[in-house]
Write a structure and sequence with these properties.
427 residues; 2 domains; nine-stranded mixed β-sheet; 15 helices; 21 strands; 34% helix; globular
Length: 427
């Protein structure tokens, strides 16, 4: 299908989203749709999280995205066997005709996100169409690639953001007025609904809008790197030329961008504060967490700032010594990168002041939940470092320049639930 209605000779090549026959759970064959869903694989990292999901329903998607066996090769083969069995038993069935899918998430706070799930043409980094903003870890890419090779499936969509002209968003909103293919509420309180777009005119309108734009990877850097690797392994054309994605027009439906906090193991707060004496301004805040976070937020326009916790109080670090920053932050990067809180934390505080390796789980943990980070620090005698969130515009501008942000700089959400629609490369 022509994705843009123009020849490549007369129009730049943009995002190319194609239809596919989605694999979905038969609701009559599982306990409930909520019981077979899961957060993305990289959110469910603890064994207790996997076991909780496995016990929710014997067909929970976690058995495919995080198979548990004695060895990596046994795990991937187990996932492939499980997928084949579920297909033969009718647990998962393919929709009768190809389409794009409208996906909606809504919670009690009023958060509403809608986007389009489809098979996106995998483009090379040099094309500048799909913009990463974080580096990847090769072992994780190798693990995901082995799983996709074995299952010959895209088991969960990446989350990408774009800014369209509104045409696709109009189709999305109009589709969402119809009865959905499925609706369920997961235990985190989010309501999920899914529709299909099969009308050729609507599909073409979506494709035309996307063909003029680029996308930012909000969540799924390792899976996008996996798509690139697997496409390179298979001569084109092949099903590996495309990968499953969720595209959200953030001009219409802005995502939440939250900070990812750090827990420094083995570094008591007193030692952390002693090391920064004379290098940052330090103010003790004897206030509840919510008020301390408000104080941190108030500094967001006044330079770098961090909130340290773990000793029963909060300590605001701000106004870093300019000479310290000049000595410790690489000068060959854009100013927006050099001024990031995450850059100052990693290049200045972790490396030069506290001497903590950022890639060592024994020394540092990355935690999304603010209260949990503080509680763990207080319980373990470590230091919680609470961060500002980074605006999407900053992330996108740096990504356009090809500049990678420090690891775990952002958390975009809400992330799509896994298990509502899958893509097999066999049909």
């Amino acid at each position: 299908m022509n994705t843009a209605g123009h020849s490549e000779a007369t129009a730049p090549r943009g995002l190319e989203l194609t239809t596919f026959r989605g694999l979905r759970y038969d609701p009559d064959r599982v306990g409930s749709l909520a019981a077979v869903t899961s957060p993305p694989y990289d959110v469910v990292v603890r064994p207790d999280g996997v076991h909780h999901l496995q016990s929710a329903d014997p067909h929970n998607i976690v058995r495919l995205i995080l198979p548990q066996a004695g060895t990596p090769s046994a795990s991937t083969e187990q996932a492939a066997d499980t997928l084949r069995r579920w297909l033969s038993e009718g647990i998962l069935t393919a929709d009768p005709e190809p389409g794009l899918y409208v996906y909606e998430q809504h919670d009690e706070s009023g958060m509403l996100q809608r986007g389009i799930i489809g098979a996106l043409r995998i483009s090379e980094p040099a094309e500048g169409l799909v913009l990463p903003h974080e580096d990847v870890m090769p072992p994780v890419v190798a693990d995901r690639a082995a799983l996709m090779r074995a299952t010959r499936a895209n088991l969960e969509p990446l989350l990408l953001t774009y800014r369209g002209d509104g045409t696709a968003a109009e189709v999305v909103d109009r589709t969402a007025e119809k009865p959905p293919l499925l609706a369920t509420t997961t235990e985190d309180g989010f309501q999920h609904r899914l529709w299909s777009i099969t009308d050729p005119t609507d599909v073409a309108r979506v494709q035309s809008d996307l063909a003029r734009t680029e996308a930012l990877i909000a969540d799924g850097h390792h899976r996008w790197a996996t798509y690139l690797r697997l496409r390179a392994e298979h001569p084109s054309p092949s099903p590996w030329d495309h990968g499953l994605v969720l595209l959200v027009d953030t001009a219409r439906y802005p995502l939440r961008v939250r900070a990812i906090h750090r827990l420094l193991h083995g570094l008591p707060v007193a030692d952390a504060l002693a090391a920064v004496h004379g290098l940052f301004r330090v103010r003790r805040l004897d206030t509840p967490l919510a008020e301390a976070l408000e104080t941190l937020a108030d500094t967001s326009c006044a330079g770098n700032a961090f909130l340290l916790a773990g000793d029963g109080a909060f300590h605001l670090l701000d106004r870093p010594d300019p000479d310290l920053l000049a000595r410790t932050i690489p000068a060959d990067r854009p100013a927006a990168w050099r001024s990031l809180d995450a850059t100052v934390l990693h290049a200045t505080l972790l490396e030069h002041v506290w001497h903590i390796p950022e890639d060592s789980p024994a020394h540092i943990a990355y935690i999304h939940d603010t209260a949990a980070t503080v509680a763990k620090a207080e319980r373990d005698g470590g230091t919680a470092v609470l961060m500002h969130p980074v605006r999407e515009e900053v992330v996108r501008d740096l990504a356009r320049q090809g500049v990678m942000m420090p690891r775990k700089s952002t958390s975009f959400g809400p992330k799509p639930a896994s298990g509502l629609v899958l893509r097999t490369l066999e049909i």
